[in-house]
């Protein structure tokens, strides 16, 4: 009889102990272990807390590199790389392809070909750059803008007491417009066009003082007057005429 009572009490105690883990109080697939007065949760990797209720933030001390974004996952993390980078930790740097230099020109890549770096273009002497002088390696590993090119360039233009507007450029087909400073007037071509030969078509104009034109016009009028008088006198052999100042 005593043995039967002891067995019943033992089974009740076991049932009471197991009742602490039924239903399972541990979250996130944690394993419950019943004890005399309490239970213990053994958490799967990635979770912590008394009942495994907390997701461990592995991004708290992440090692993602080069501006990458850390994404927390169970028992680990992922690095979302910025453009131009790769690898588990975004440690591998990608770069744009080596650019070609334009014909009759040069390209300076001394800053490097990695994302964000800038290259510079220049032309040989006698050639002018058409297009952007610099390009940037973008996140998609392509160069910004289009490759520029070098065209034959006409020389700089200078005229005394004036200036040449070459805002269109000095490449073939471009037009230079001349102007004079105050007190001077333009004599000759007001515009010149740059030819494929690299020379301006035509002769540069000059800027002459305004008073000089008055003198020239006076001389021309006097010459015309004298010519008319001479013709009349030649027609009349008895003509006498004295021109006085």
Structure description:
Residues 17-53, 55-91 form the EGF-like domain. Helix content is 18%, strand content 29%. The chain contains two helices and 19 strands. The protein has a four-stranded antiparallel beta sheet, with no helix packed on it. It has a three-stranded antiparallel beta sheet with strand order 9-10-12, with no helix packed on it. The longest helix is centred in the C-terminal third of the chain and has 26 residues, at 210-235.
Strand runs, count: 19
The CATH homologous superfamily of the largest domain: Complement Module, domain 1
* Cα end-to-end separation: 166 Å
Unreliable residue runs:
1-17
Give the strand order of the largest sheet, numbering strands 1, 2, ... along the chain. Answer: 14-15-17-18
Provide the CATH topology of the largest domain.
Complement Module, domain 1
The CATH class designation of the largest domain is Mainly Beta
Oligomer: single chain
Structural class by sheet pairing and helices: alpha+beta
**General form:** rod-shaped
Q: What would you report as the Rg, rounded to the nearest angstrom?
A: 47 Å
What series of H and E elements makes up the topology? HEEEEEEEEEEEEEEEEEEEH
Share of helical residues: 10-25%
Domain module tally: 4
Average pLDDT score: 83
Helices, by number, come to 2
Q: Profile the largest sheet.
A: 4 strands, antiparallel
Quickly give the CATH architecture of the largest domain: Ribbon
- Sheet-strand content, in percent, reads 25-35%
């Amino acid at each position: 009889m005593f043995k039967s009572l002891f067995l019943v009490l033992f089974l009740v105690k076991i049932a009471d102990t197991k009742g602490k883990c039924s239903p399972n109080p541990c979250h996130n697939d944690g394993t419950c272990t019943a004890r005399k007065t309490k239970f213990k949760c053994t958490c799967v990797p990635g979770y912590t807390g008394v009942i495994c209720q907390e997701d461990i933030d592995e991004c708290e001390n992440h090692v993602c590199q080069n501006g990458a974004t850390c994404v927390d996952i169970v028992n680990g993390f992922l690095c979302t790389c910025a453009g131009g980078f790769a690898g588990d930790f975004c440690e591998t740097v990608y770069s744009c392809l080596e650019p070609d230099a334009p014909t009759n020109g040069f390209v300076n890549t001394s800053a490097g070909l990695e994302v964000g770096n800038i290259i510079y273009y220049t032309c040989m002497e006698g050639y002018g750059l058409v297009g952007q002088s610099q390009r940037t390696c973008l996140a998609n590993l392509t160069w910004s803008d289009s490759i520029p090119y070098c065209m034959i360039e006409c020389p700089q233009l200078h005229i005394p007491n004036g200036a040449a507007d070459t805002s269109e450029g000095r490449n073939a087909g471009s037009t230079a417009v001349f102007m004079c400073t105050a007190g001077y007037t333009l004599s000759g071509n007001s515009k010149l066009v740059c030819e494929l030969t690299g020379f301006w078509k035509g002769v540069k104009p000059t800027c002459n003082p305004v008073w000089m034109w008055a003198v020239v016009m006076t001389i021309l009028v006097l010459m015309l007057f004298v010519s008319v008088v001479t013709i009349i006198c030649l027609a009349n052999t008895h003509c006498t005429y004295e021109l006085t100042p």
